[in-house]
Amino acid sequence: MSSAVARSSIYRYRIAFSDCDPAQIVFFANYFKWFDTSAREFFTACGIPSWRETEKATGMIGMPLVDAQAKFLSPATYGEDIEIESSVETWNTKSFVMRHVARRGDTVLAEGREVRVFAVRDKVDAQRIVAIPIPEYIRAACS
Amino acid sequence: MSSAVARSSIYRYRIAFSDCDPAQIVFFANYFKWFDTSAREFFTACGIPSWRETEKATGMIGMPLVDAQAKFLSPATYGEDIEIESSVETWNTKSFVMRHVARRGDTVLAEGREVRVFAVRDKVDAQRIVAIPIPEYIRAACS
Amino acid sequence: MSSAVARSSIYRYRIAFSDCDPAQIVFFANYFKWFDTSAREFFTACGIPSWRETEKATGMIGMPLVDAQAKFLSPATYGEDIEIESSVETWNTKSFVMRHVARRGDTVLAEGREVRVFAVRDKVDAQRIVAIPIPEYIRAACS
Amino acid sequence: MSSAVARSSIYRYRIAFSDCDPAQIVFFANYFKWFDTSAREFFTACGIPSWRETEKATGMIGMPLVDAQAKFLSPATYGEDIEIESSVETWNTKSFVMRHVARRGDTVLAEGREVRVFAVRDKVDAQRIVAIPIPEYIRAACS
């Protein structure tokens, strides 16, 4: 019988002075940056190589966002240690949903969800980016 | 009969090299930063003084976010000029919803929504932040 | 007789809330970011195409820094309009020196100098970056 | 006989995707940000409380920069672990010089120097910032 518990990873970070704004709390957009870093750490923990290597091997340049959302529950400030727990909530055919929870100790600071795709460069126009079906080996490695 | 068209402002920005990531497109969290800047520009256009001045006059330190969400529709890169159109979609009792649309010419790049509150510092613990009812003069100035 | 006045460009920017730190002034590293943006604007004003285009045409991926230095003379804060004046102070064989002055009205806020090179990717290891002699057409276009 | 070895601290950081620019290497201004964070970590390691607490206790709001300089010796990219070693090189009457070295393993990536002051808010104009003589207890705690 398979477990219903999704695989997750933890990204640890100490908030820097320059992450905070004139209200002396974390500028909210930094949570989106840290969720992104934590998302990449999740895939690293699952054994997925860097996008530099996947680009050389298969053309895959990364996992651009289609949608991002976060709730901000409690303020935090510099010098504080936070943890971000990240997991894949849903695998769709061409997109997947990541969930992130940022905590300082037991206090939940922010919760986020991202819809992402895996992308390659368009063959005709390298400036364009095209979503590909979720590679089966990634899904298998991360489940 | 009053018009149903909400007041809006336009924030213009040229994307910088350092706003882009190794995929050579805008790093998505920058849109949240620019939406925030555009939100402040909206209030400036409505005649609301800086938070430095409101803090001195009334204790109000700014408009922290409770929730933020964005859809990313088309990639953009450095050297490109974008416009962000911002407006207040809904005024609630203690919170309000801002809507932002980022465009490069006629192409919509990203659309966002933010739920914000106006905040003062807690009298006992200055590190805590407390939401206040939407000040009537702000709502009047911005409608 | 030719003028000794170097060609210069002006980059205009309004300081954002999120550019400022808990001391409520611009976080100093942002000046380095803005100097970089202004450096690129200088080359754009001289007619040099984006690095995306030079990479396709000649392999040149940009102008990485070898050294950067700035003096911070007066604090600035959000909502203030600044101008950065940028010019090439010296062209060497393989490097060049840019000078940047950030002003708010007549007040000099910061002055910086950058030593940069023009770079291509190493043919063997694309992760390595190699400085090339200053291209004559760039020097001619920018003098 | 006193030791000539200055006290130093180490700040560890894994480079994030969003710290890198379209040339796929760390955007240089991030080193200045990390040096700043490492500078604060140095003082934390010496037992100096956060600027929030020093502001309440003595009015001191932080240690703004007067000058910053860095040399960039080797590129780095995301997923790489770096260490920044920070120390005070010189204590002057009203300013001090910090030195930072960023390394990935044995490879020196960047070296920086900052001239900083300790500052309080001006009593008449709270937007102005005034340098104070180096507090003796800080110098003693950090030597």
Describe the fold and architecture.
The structure is a homotetramer of 143-residue chains. With 143 residues, the first copy, chain A, is α+β, with helices and mostly antiparallel strands. Chain A is built from 3 helices and 8 strands; from the N terminus they run E-H-H-E-E-E-E-E-E-E-H. In chain A, strands 1-4-5-6-3 form a 5-stranded antiparallel beta sheet. In chain A, strand 7 and strand 8 form a beta hairpin. The mean pLDDT of chain A is 93. Chains in contact: A-B, A-C, A-D, B-C, B-D, C-D. Chains A and B meet through helix 1 and strand 3 of A and helix 1 and strand 3 of B. Strand 3 of chain A pairs antiparallel with strand 3 of chain B, so a sheet runs across the interface.
**Structural classification of chain A:** alpha+beta
Q: How helical, in percent, are the residues of chain A?
A: 10-25%
Query: What's the number of extended β-strand segments of chain A?
Result: 8
Shape of chain A: globular
Question: What's the SSE pattern of chain A?
Answer: EHHEEEEEEEH
Radius of gyration of chain A: 16 Å
Q: Which strand order do you get reading across the main beta sheet of chain A?
A: 1-4-5-6-3
> Which two chains share the most extensive interface?
A-B, 30 and 30 residues
List the quaternary state of the chains: homotetramer
The rounded distance between the terminal residues' Cα atoms of chain A is 15 Å
Q: Please mark out the parts of chain A with pLDDT under 50 across 5 or more consecutive residues, or reply none.
A: none
Largest sheet of chain A: 5 strands, antiparallel
